[in-house]
Amino acid sequence: MSEFVHTSVKNNIGYITLDRPKALNSLSLDMVRALTTTLLAWQDDQSVRAVFIHGSSEKAFCAGGDIRFFYDVGTATPKGDSALLEDFFTEEYALNHLIHFYPKPYIALMNGVVMGGGMGIAQAGNDCRLRIVTERTKMAMPEVNIGLFPDVGGGYFLSRAPGQIGTYMGLTGEIINAADALYAGLADVFIPTSELPALMHLLEQNTATDVRAAIREFAVPFADQALPGNSKLAANRSGIDALFSGNSAIEITNHLQQDTSEFAQQAFAIMQKRSPLLMSVTLEQLRRSASMTVSDCLRMERNMVRHCFKHGEVLEGVRALVVDKDNTPRWSPATLAEVTTEQVANFFTEVWPTHAHPLRFLQG
């Protein structure tokens, strides 16, 4: 078990606490394995009737995967630890699938930063889930900023957001707040952080059959003026749907450039900084994912991530953002105009024969 994942069972609720505060609870391979082991053990344990996962501090629920680990392993010579990188993504995606089909109520408190891999362990889930946001929530799928794509099932849940909101989030990597998350269907309830101590006390004392119903008693209705922060997504919904409906990234950026609204110009400026290739790949991913099952999305993403590291775009992105911190990635290709359909298509070619795919056993 990982030193950064703490578990306990109180009042028939299984608690998982992510406790790696210096890294904003970014997931390591050991953490992925600890989460998987715990959830598998509780799955058929009659003494556990619900799962509650949260971070140890108000700064972050989970900021994603350990991207410095990705870089160190991906650039190591000789590449003796490359198997660990393969294991990480295979096991992380399998964990996302486990959570998505978990048979018990799965409650995620998305307080603070929740991005990338953190979204994967919060957004995954069926009708049994409950996703809580607070005034501290900072949510995003920012992978294009490091030359990656919205993985961990991101193709599945982003492509099912209203209109073109998922396309906007995937191509810009922009951070959204609690009101945005509720509007986009990426959260279920808003609970102020001032109410969290009372909520945790209730859970430890509550004997109600439906834990989620008890939690909802603390929720502030979406229309209530007490909900902090207006939804930028709601305010710009018509523009998002019109501007991000194209089937090529260059078409979308051309529309943004021609639109004089503040929102369009901000989105255009942001996209000039992202990886042209991975924005194009992300758009294709989202369009494909809209008609795919969870399992098929995760299998496709597992192929895609192998191509990402083979190409090297993600290593350059992490170098610029985390390692050298010069914030000047040398993207290849450097512009959207240079991205070809063949380059994009290569990211969707099969890496393994069907019978040998590491996620071949996923169903649903």
TrEMBL record:
Record domain Enoyl-CoA hydratase/isomerase: where = 13-348
Keyword Ribonucleoprotein on entry: no
This protein's superkingdom? Bacteria
Keyword Heme: yes or no? Answer: no
Which keywords has UniProt assigned to this entry?
Hydrolase
- Which CDD domains does the entry mention? crotonase-like
Which SUPFAM superfamilies does the entry link to? ClpP/crotonase
* Pfam families (alphabetical): ECH_2
Name-wise, this protein is Enoyl-CoA hydratase/isomerase family protein
The organism is: Undibacterium hunanense
